[in-house]
Every structure is written in C-alpha cells, then in structure tokens.
Amino acid sequence: MNTKPASATIPVNPVQVHHRTLDVEGVGVFYREAGAPEAPAVLLLHGFGASSYMFRALIPVLAQRYHVVAPDLPGFGQTDVLPGAGFDYTFDRLAAVIDAFTVVKGLDRYALYVFDYGAPVGWRLAVNNPHKITAIVSQNGNAYEEGLSAGWADMRKAWAAPTAANREALRRFNTLEMTKWQYTEGVSDASLIAPETWQLAHAAIERIGVEVQMDLLLDYGHNIQQYAELHDFFRRHQPPTLAIWGSKDPFFLPAGAEAFKRDNPQVEVRFLDTGHFAIETHGAEIAAAMLAFLDRSIGS
C-alpha cells in the first residue's frame, strides 16, 4: 500500500503579481502589474463598484504572454488623492491621471481592456492617443447610447436638471445593498460571486467618500456627449476590438455590444449568460477569449 502523502503540482515559474503605488499629478495611483516588461502591454481599466481587484484571476493568465498593468482609478480601491492636492472627480480628470500614469510607466503602446467606468476613461485615452492603442477589449464597457438601459432614468434626470434633490436621488446607488445587487443581478448561481467583491468595493466608497461617487454619476452624461468623437475614432482607426458582454447586465444592454459593428464591421461580439460583472462568473471564458484575440491581434 502506498503511504506517501499526496502533493500538489506547483508550476515551475508561476506568474508573480506586484502591487505598487505611483505618485501621478497629486494622486497615489495603486496598481497591479505582472508579466515581462518587454512583452506587449495590456492596460486593464475597472469600473463602478470595483477596483483592480476584479482582475485578480485574469492578470496571471494574461501575464504568461503579456505585460499587464491594472491601476485603481481615482476614487476607487487603493488609489488616494494625496494630502493638499485638489481634485475634481470628473471623467476628464480620471482619464488625465491614467494617461499620465501610462507615460510614467513607459506604456508607449498598449491594448485596452475596459469595463463600465473604465470605458469612458479608456475611450478618452484612445481618442487622444490613437497611435498608442493596439487593440480593445470591452467587457460591458458601453460606447453607444442604445446600450443604456432604463436603469439610467434617475441619472438622466439628474444630468438634465442637476438640482440638489436629483443629486440626492443618486445616493442609493452607493449603498452596500445596491453594490451587491450589481454583482448578483442576472447571475443564475449567485454562490459563484465571492462576497469580498462587493464588500471591498463598498469599503472603498466609505473610506474615500460617497460624494466622490455622486460627482462621477452626475458627470457621466458628458461621456454620452463625446460618443460622436469616439465613433469617429472607431471608423478612422478600426482597432481590433472584442466586445464580450454579460447579456443580462441591468445597465448596459446587449444592443450596446452589437453597436460596435456599426463603425467597425470587424469587431468580434460575444455574449455570456450572466450579469454586469461577467468576469466574476465567466472569468475563465473571458481569459481564454482574450488570449486568443490578443494573440491574433498583437502577438506576444
């Protein structure tokens, strides 16, 4: 009888993920980084109710062949505005910080993965620096108005009339219950969602301040006003693009994914039977699709 204890197989060269902070324009930008610096770069941009923590499983997979960098946007996760530095929480400002971050990091060319709020940040990077963008992966990162569901009604009302009462109506989007709902809505098996996901996101809201999130919700309407300029970028530059979408997203509809084909007929569109945070339930599928797409588009 074999009495030798069983042992797990350990990879010879497991990918190591580094956790660092870089001072950029008065902001301490926290970021995760992995992969060979000389490999093609991939910039991962998270969204509302999240941070670079959402990429915790994706980064080691991509980093086998790519240089992966995932910052926390200002107002989220571990990123902090430094003491004494004034900061306006608008998408223009978030994009300016992340743009400067890429320069400091030496990311002269990179593929973009955008999700939710990461999309309007990434779209600004692309429009302002089209020569830097090698490919785009949009996971429920909207770029077309028909992608916006009826769930945006309160926000549309506040954009049209930014009164104190209309602003206050948006506060509910930042409660723990609503954050959890965004993770679980449209998911057939909610037990697949780790509770730390929404707990950590809400803890950051509490630490940084709800008013920051209110400012960004009010500013989101400016992203829609810039869609025409973004669509012109898509038409002119035709970047290799993969739109991979949770089809049961309560905020960003499947029509928003299909709309990418209007300005770039070569866009690949894939739907997953899940909700907004598709990466939490279908991370393996997204990782495999991304590797295949990036290998075809930019090589390794």
What is the strand and helix layout of this fold?
Layout: E1 18-24, E2 27-34, E3 41-45, H1 58-62, E4 67-71, E5 80-81, H2 91-104, E6 110-114, H3 118-128, E7 133-138, H4 153-160, H5 164-168, H6 176-184, H7 196-208, H8 210-219, H9 221-225, H10 227-237, E8 241-246, H11 254-258, H12 260-263, E9 268-272, H13 278-281, H14 283-297
Parallel strand pairs: 3-4, 3-6, 6-7, 7-8, 8-9
Antiparallel strand pairs: 1-2, 2-4, 2-5
Helix pairs in contact: 2-3, 6-7
Describe the structure.
There is one protein chain. This protein starts with 17 loop residues before the first strand and ends with a helix. With 300 residues, the protein is an alpha/beta fold. It has a domain of 208 residues: Alpha/Beta hydrolase fold, catalytic domain (Rossmann fold). Strands 1, 2, 3, 4, 5, 6, 7, 8 and 9 form a 9-stranded mixed β-sheet that branches. 40% of the residues lie in helices and 16% in strands.
Question: How would you sum up this structure in a few lines?
Answer:
The chain is of the alpha/beta class. It has 14 helices and 9 strands.
Number of H/I helices? 14
Distance N to C terminus: 47 Å
Helix content: 25-40%
Which structural class do the helices and strands define? alpha/beta
- At the fold tier of CATH, the topology name of the domain at 18-151 and 224-297 is Rossmann fold
CATH C-level label of the domain at 18-151 and 224-297: Alpha Beta
